[in-house]
Amino acid sequence: MTIQSGRECRFTEMVGTSPALQTVFAAVQRVAPTTSTVLILGETGTGKELVARAIHHTSARHGRPFVKLNCAAIPFDLLESELFGHEKGAFTGAVAQKIGRFELADGGTLFLDEIGDIPLALQPKLLRVLQEQEFERLGSCRTHHVSVRLIAATHRDLTALVQRNEFRSDLYYRLNVFPVVVPPLRDRREDIPPLVAHFVERFAQRMGKHIEHIPSQTLGALLSHAWPGNVRELQNVVERAVICANDGVLADVLGASNQSAPMPIPDAASTHPRGQFWTFERSLILRELEAAGWVVGGTDGAAERLGLKRTTLIGKMKRLGIARPARRRATVDPAHEHTEAWLTRTAPTHLPR
């Protein structure tokens, strides 16, 4: 069981600047000030618990408990007691009174992970506490009133479960007040470099190692991997790579054979003394600038693609020593002057200021 309180915001653990992740951030900021129930949807390992923590720690309940329970990890016979508690002697083995998770979370937030695995027989009681904010412990007729914000998460398709009569439709509609979909890692590959840097720093510090260089071949393998286990799998792979690292170089534990289209990393950046995060950030910004034709602002500019403000991107470019390459005037055959005119019209004509 985990209970957390305090005002620390957990956005720092949700690493990435991809548009897909920025959509999640925007949803968190929109729903956090309310008391509405949130349903977090996403594949296993995408970071659904981090989203739940971010909602709690940016809400008015940030100073109250954050209590979590994985519904799939508790046996059916014990889950009701875990949620609502029991009195001494309520059943065989109940040698003492037990406080349930709803009572522990009173005034705060209860996060029920894998809500799709909750038994059908227990769902009416869960629906009642969500609607009425009241329940009874097992073996007691006394009604307890609580003020609990519920955040639920699942990797399962609840609508399909409802159609198969494996999940109550009324409970589903009560949970699905504000859905937040967490994208899989394969849909936000631009977040892999900063995630790798984040995990390398964490594990290197924990193991007392100093990682100075992440080869482009190693990063290419990480970028090309399918990641069926999402961020959790990436975290475990990076931990293994840090364990296997020699002479300050991150090990390639996936192998070059897994690469399909590795992301190029400038050699000068990859060995820069400011460390691997400088490498990744500079490479990512260069890639998006080139993709945007070196247009910084605007709807299709690099700042929009990176999920940054224009002024923020310009500041990063100055700090990382990124400047737009000098324009080259192409030599065009006189018979194709219209092509040269088109190039002149469409090429970027200004540097960011």
Measure the end-to-end span. Answer: 52 Å
Instruction: Sketch the major β-sheet.
Output: 6 strands, mixed
CATH superfamily of the largest domain: P-loop containing nucleotide triphosphate hydrolases
CATH class of the largest domain: Alpha Beta
Q: How many domains, as an integer? A: 2
Class per helix and strand makeup: alpha/beta
Named CATH architecture of the largest domain = 3-Layer(aba) Sandwich
Shape field? elongated
Question: What portion of residues is helical?
Answer: 40-55%
- Helix/strand order, N-terminal first: EHEHEHHEHEEEHHEHHHHHHHH
Strand residues, percent: 5-15%
Within the largest sheet, what's the order of strands? 1-3-4-7-2-8
Rg, nearest Å: 26 Å
Determine the CATH topology of the largest domain: Rossmann fold
Question: Based on DSSP secondary structure assignment, what is the total number of beta strands?
Answer: 8
Our count of helices gives 15
Low-confidence stretches: 1-10, 259-276, 329-353
Short précis:
This protein has helices spanning 19-31, 48-57, 76-84, 101-104, 123-132, 158-163, 169-175, 192-207, 216-224, 230-243, 267-270, 276-291, 302-306, 310-319, 337-346, and strands spanning 2-4, 38-41, 66-70, 109-113, 134-136, 143-145, 149-154, 178-181. It is of the alpha/beta class and 353 residues long.
